[in-house]
Amino acid sequence: MVEYNKVTDEVVKKLVAICGEKYVTDSEPLRYSYMARGIMGLEAVLPEVVIRPANTEEIRKILMVANDNLSPVTPAAGGLSGGFALPAIEPGGILMDLTRMNKMEVDTENRVMIVEPGVRCGDAWRIFKKKWPEWAPPIPDGAPPGATILGDAIERGFSLVTGRYGPQADMIMGLEIVLPSGELFRTGSWALDGAKAFYRWGVGPNPDGLFLGSQGSMGIITKAAVKIVPHPHFKTIVAYGGDSWEHIIEPAWEIGKYEMGISDNTVMVQGGNWPLVMTRWPKSNVPLDYKFYEKIGIDEYWMNSEVWAHSQEELDFTLKRIDEIYKDYEVKKKTVCKQQQLHPKQIASRLKKPNLIAVPYGLYEAGFLFITWYCPWLESSKMMEEYCAAMENYGFPPTMWVASIDHARQAIVMPILCFDSSEPGIYDKIREFNIETTKSFLKQGWINYRPDPFVHAPLTFSKSKEYYRMLVKFRKVLDPNLILHPGRLAIPWASVTDSPSPLEGE
Amino acid sequence: MTSLEELRKINARCIHCRACQYAYSNEPDREGADEEYTGMMLSCPGGNFYGWEGYFNSGRMWMARAFLEGDLKPSQEMLEVVEACTTCGLCAEQCTNYIDTVDIIEELRAAIIESGVEPLKRHKMIGDRVLEEDKRNPYNDPRSDRTAWHDGSVDDKNMKVAYYVGCTGAYRQQDVAKHTASILKKLGVDFTVLTEEVCCGSPILRTGQKDIFKIVMKENLEMFENYDLLVFSCAGCYRTFKVDYPRQSGKPLPFKVAHTLDIVYDLITEGKLKIEKPYNKKVTWHDPCHTIRHIGLAIEKAILEKSDNWLLDSRKAAKAKEAWYERPREVIRAIPGMDFREMYRIKGNSFCCGAGGGVKTQFPEVANDTARERVKEAAATGAEVLLTSCPFCITNFTDAVNALKKEEEETGKDLSAVGSKLEIVELLQLLDELLD
Ligand SMILES: Cc1cc2nc3c(=O)[nH]c(=O)nc-3n(C[C@H](O)[C@H](O)[C@H](O)COP(=O)(O)OP(=O)(O)OC[C@H]3O[C@@H](n4cnc5c(N)ncnc54)[C@H](O)[C@@H]3O)c2cc1C
Ligand code: SF4
Ligand code: SF4
Asked: Is the full-model pTM beyond 0.90?
């Protein structure tokens, strides 16, 4: 394992000199207040100091101090990725709470917004609503308001328009990055002095992909230029049911494959199964049998299409075409995909952004974990069938959510593992479940999107060794002392654990 | 008696979504007058002031978890962080995991103190005073003066109704006590007050001093047990009797409780009371956390506790809560001539005055900052009068407005846009003036 040094009083003093006393703390209770394990990452280590920098210059100086002292650094923007925005290794080092850096500029001509890491979705939405109602910031679809635009973009998240534009990282037009050496640079056309962030691929080969999805392990992003999207005000949701995963996945592909026209209007396509409704309530205070849900009009499986249009005519046309496609599909597959009759309140609640729709999974048994996978859209029904069976096998309710990325090119498949966090041995059970499903899914060429450092990452990299070696090389160039939070990707493996490396056996 | 341990499973529902930092966290499209008052707003008094995660409820829940798991050891430092919260309950209102955040925070405070950590200095002082035989109030005033404000019935065991005055009414805001007594008289409610009354224990319980709380709760319950109805003018005392006594004693109350405004509300809605005198002013209303949000949440919880299907019953529970939030508005709307203007953050999403939970005593700077933000919001409605009904809100707002006035004098600036000209009025006082 890589050797790091503890944060000494001397280091704390230096940090105080950079940010001011008010914004540096080694208070134990305050450090614990960030320790939200769960949701996406179960492993986390207590930071030794938390710091709230105000600007890029302070971040530069902090990184240089950390680099000199060999202290690990973890950035947290909204901190809503659970254990992901927390230190993963001992010693916990410096946690950078970036919520103070919350400046936002909007350029509607260039259709881009420049955000610092602390610009939260709830705030961006509020400001757009008043100042630029014809435009929308690409906020995550289902993340709570405290998630940030930048955090979601660098996580390559799932936004309110991902069905149309692709994962959130595809919205990036430029990044401003600080490296542990204190070097600062920008990507895209932004790299040119005085230029706007108007062209992602910029003045030469674009390295920005190294910083997207690497969870702060390659550099700290201090600003991002992100595309904004038109916000037409004719919107609705239509939902169609089905008797299997296949029968909700395939018709959505039929719509997506047009790629232009109605498929562009269909900004978001997402679906699930009936336990997705059940597990939002306490297990002891909700019916556990499908019969009840059937009676209240919930299909066993369903897919929602969220449609945005510039006029009622355009909206009506899109809905008509969607309906025709479903009808054709029913004939072709001799099945029934019944359109659900949504109450206006249900439509309004599904259109709401940002929302708290995914929060109540904590209610079912007081413990939950999102596990996220990507696969080609048409293969997602197979993945979900396998996943649901494995969940039931392990005694978890088969709560499953799926969404289309970029016109049903890829699927984001997300089982929501609801579990009783007080059950003895539960975390071992989750780990076994993860290992079993991961082994099977990797064989089928599917990829985990927010890897667990001790399960998904090593299993994945043992099947992509050359790529892993390259990532390690890049990381060592950007961060030779490996002080940046090694991320859930665990690059390089030795910075995270003494256990055998994914390259073992070479 | 409840304990943090009993709330372990409820605390474990927290997914650190941080929604509880905002008012209207689930209403991103809520319309407001301008960019500041639109959609959701960061609205946790403790968190807004300090900025660190541990001062927001989302961080407190994870501190509680670390404490329960034995990772975080109790300390004075921890108590300082946990106490810097007004227990306003805005966070509980936001949490779609129905976490009883205020209960957890209060039980965490108690657990830290039970583990041997001294209560914070000023909190300890009020706890000690409440126990002192010749005081029994947090203000250090003589017990013998408790009913000095009153010239009516005292210690009458034959009465059916007792007015529980509370320490603030008895010693600091006697005019509110007098107005309440006068309203009751006008409404034909015969009542007595008790010279032996002791502090209800609200500030003691909120600050985690449960041993002392148990003592005063027991005394009050015994002292008043033979009355049919207890009426209140203090939001804190009312909340403590109505919500905390049954929970902390494990027994239903031996008497009914009503805030004086409840009595007025009932009479107005039953058509038995009409306010004739007009009040020709521009007025806004601040919902006191104790009587509005806390009780609303308790109503919602009581319905859910009985339900075996939250999916169906949660809407009914939310409706009952909303109906409670509407009550003071119905009283206000019954006042003729008033130009009533709502602030942006209201009802369950109301922004706290900043004084509760022992904060005004121990962290005056948090209390001041919060009150300034709230009076600014009140001033943004164009109101001349900020109406409320809670002694702590009244004091804290008055202090904020006075500080603004002082600042105006010192700097020559006009601060009316942020509230320097606001008149702070207790609704009970206004009702007394308007009722014949
Ligand atoms: C209830 C719930 C629902 C969710 N729904 C969605 C959804 O619909 N769509 C979706 O995409 N996600 C969703 N998420 C996941 C999560 O909220 C998002 O990924 C979120 O937007 C991440 O943003 P954040 O600001 O919280 O990032 P953080 O958690 O703060 O950070 C994300 C990662 O980036 C790193 N990082 C943070 N700042 C920087 C920086 N400046 N430079 C470099 N690295 C940095 C962190 O270390 C961490 O690894 C949901 C989460 C929850 C809890
Ligand atoms: S208390 Fe509720 S609203 Fe707050 S962070 Fe936890 S789950 Fe979210
Ligand atoms: S009760 Fe009020 S002050 Fe305390 S954490 Fe919740 S919102 Fe903040």
From this structure: yes
